[in-house]
Specification:
Blueprint: H1 2-22, H2 47-106, H3 109-128, H4 130-145, H5 155-190, H6 195-209, H7 212-227, H8 232-254, H9 260-285, H10 297-328, H11 333-350, H12 354-370, H13 373-404, H14 413-445, H15 449-467, H16 473-497
Helix pairs in contact: 1-2, 1-13, 2-3, 2-8, 2-9, 2-11, 2-12, 3-6, 3-10, 3-11, 4-5, 4-7, 4-10, 4-12, 5-6, 5-7, 6-9, 7-9, 8-9, 10-15, 10-16, 11-13, 11-14, 12-13, 12-14, 13-14, 14-16, 15-16
Length: about 500
């Protein structure tokens, strides 16, 4: 199963590589001076004039060559950032699919069905607080860029900017851990989970919930690595933790312990602790580890400028997932297990768009602050064009995996049939979401939170209305595609219509 996922991931990475490489060819925006580009000048027998014309032509050619080299260098840097970042963001959903595979093979469709509400309670709660890591990216990017004109950014400024977010994430994570420890049965009852599934779901939530504080702090630490353009260090850390997770799944689900859902969660918990403490040690070594302290009033205000709107936006998106889950639970155990399989594939493959969002969040804020509209819009166009290639390639990979590979996750023929039937809509949902994630980074960089929230609320109610008529997993995925597709379309129109809300003109140099 691991080899199949790695094979699909490698194909998609190759597609991304080819798409970025296409940008490295000379374009009309960087014209080269060619022979006979202008009408021939009359021949004047003067060595002084001849030298003058030759020197001017050579200078223009050199300038064009320098621009072309700078463009190529920029695209190579984008590629060096995007591919390792892709590995980072793919690792967690890959591990979720590995958990599904172990549970599906050792417990059966009932285990997969129990994972559906259990992962909803854990992963959606962590997603709810993802605004803290996104706020860290926004604040630390601006702080780091403020001293980046001469080369390296301001490490101290980035570290201080991330300190309030890290403190808040640990406090909120500890509160989540306590809630999972004492309120899990009430939570499952609120979600109207089948009583036959509650024991397995409770075991999974208790194990995963015990390290909610570590998972949330790790996301903030990861944002600091991304801001400082270091994606190799966290990739190594998370890759090693992934290996530990797979070994733990084998030990706790297959032999010597057949722990089922709880065993899979225990393996993930151990891997989370390993990666979190290792990441803290790496940040301390790079002198990037933020201090834990009570945030100042000004720091809370600055954090609130991001966290307030982002929290509201995240709530609307999470509510959409909850509505989808509720509808899926009315379709029966087999359909619910198929829905869980399809959603894990969806979450895995849409993460291919996350590096594009991070590119927007880390590259655009400095350009927007400087009022450099021309370069900011050129960067946005490059990201969007790349997202089109990624959406088609990754969407096809998701569709093929759902159609040909459901047997890797479950031996139940009914569950496999549900996944195969949902494959076409999975393609559409993945494609729309990847493009939405790409434009999402640009919208956050421009702080256009009001538009993001308004569009999100409208699309939420549209999806909620459509879900009432859904009687299958593919129909549920279709509503998700409609929601993300409409958000993507209107956001792209908004970004270009408002020029990313850049008001100050760029300074022109002669």
């Amino acid at each position: 199963m691991m080899s199949r996922h790695l094979f699909v991931s490698s194909l998609t990475i190759v597609a991304l590589f080819n798409a970025i490489s296409a940008f490295q060819r000379p374009t009309a925006s960087l014209p080269l001076i060619r022979k006979h580009s202008f009408p021939p000048l009359p021949r004047i027998h003067s060595p002084h004039l001849t030298v003058c014309f030759a020197g001017e032509n050579e200078t223009d050619t050199n300038v064009s060559d320098e621009k072309e080299k700078a463009s190529d260098s920029s695209k190579r840097q984008m590629l060096k950032f995007a591919v390792p970042a892709l590995g980072i963001y793919l690792m967690q959903p890959l591990l979720s699919n590995i958990d599904n595979s172990f549970v599906g093979r050792t417990v059966g469709s009932a285990g997969l069905a129990a994972l559906s509400p259990a992962t909803l309670c854990i992963d959606q709660a962590l997603y709810l607080f993802s605004f803290l890591s996104r706020a860290t990216t926004g604040l630390a990017s601006r702080a780091y860029a403020s001293n980046s004109s001469g080369g390296a950014g301001s490490v101290e400024a980035a570290r201080d900017a991330a300190s309030p977010a890290l403190t808040v994430s640990l406090v909120c994570g500890a509160a989540l851990t306590l809630m999972y420890a004492f309120r899990t049965p009430a939570l499952l009852q609120l979600l109207n989970v089948d009583p036959l599934l509650r024991t397995s779901a409770t075991s999974y939530i208790h194990w995963r919930g015990a390290t909610a504080w570590a998972a949330m702090a790790q996301n903030v630490c990861l944002s600091l690595f991304v801001v400082t353009r270091d994606v190799i260090t966290p990739l190594k850390i998370i890759s090693c933790a992934a290996v530990a997770n797979v070994v733990g799944d084998a030990l706790f689900c297959v032999w010597p312990i057949r722990g089922g859902c709880g065993g899979a969660a225990a393996a993930t918990t151990c891997a989370t602790l390993i990666s979190s403490f290792w990441m803290v040690a790496a940040l301390r070594k790079k002198q990037l580890l933020p201090g834990l302290r009570i945030p100042k009033k000004s720091e809370l205000a600055s954090l609130g400028e991001f966290t307030g709107p982002l929290l509201a936006i995240t709530l609307t998106r999470m509510a959409g997932f909850l509505n989808m889950q509720r509808r899926a639970m009315t379709l029966g155990v087999t359909a619910l297990a198929g829905y869980q399989l399809s959603m894990n594939l969806l979450i895995f493959f849409i993460l291919f768009g996350e590096p594009l969002s991070q590119l927007g969040q880390t590259k655009l804020p400095g350009l927007i602050e400087d009022g450099n509209a021309k370069e900011a819009m050129a960067t946005l166009k490059s990201i969007l064009l790349l997202s089109v290639f990624a959406a088609v390639g990754v969407g096809c990979a998701a569709c093929l995996t759902a159609f040909f590979g459901p047997g890797l996750f479950s031996s139940d023929l009914g569950v496999q049939a549900v996944a195969k039937g949902a494959a076409p809509m999975l393609f559409l949902a993945v494609a729309m979401t990847i493009m939405g994630i790409a434009i999402d980074g640009a919208m956050m960089a421009s702080r256009d939170f009001g538009f993001m929230l308004g569009t999100g609320i409208v699309s939420f109610f549209v999806q909620a209305k459509l879900l009432k008529y859904c009687g299958s997993v593919q129909a549920i995925l279709a509503t998700f595609a409609v929601r993300l597709g409409s958000y993507t379309l209107f956001s792209i129109i908004r970004a270009f219509a408002t020029n990313l809300r850049i008001r100050k003109p760029a300074k022109q140099t002669r």
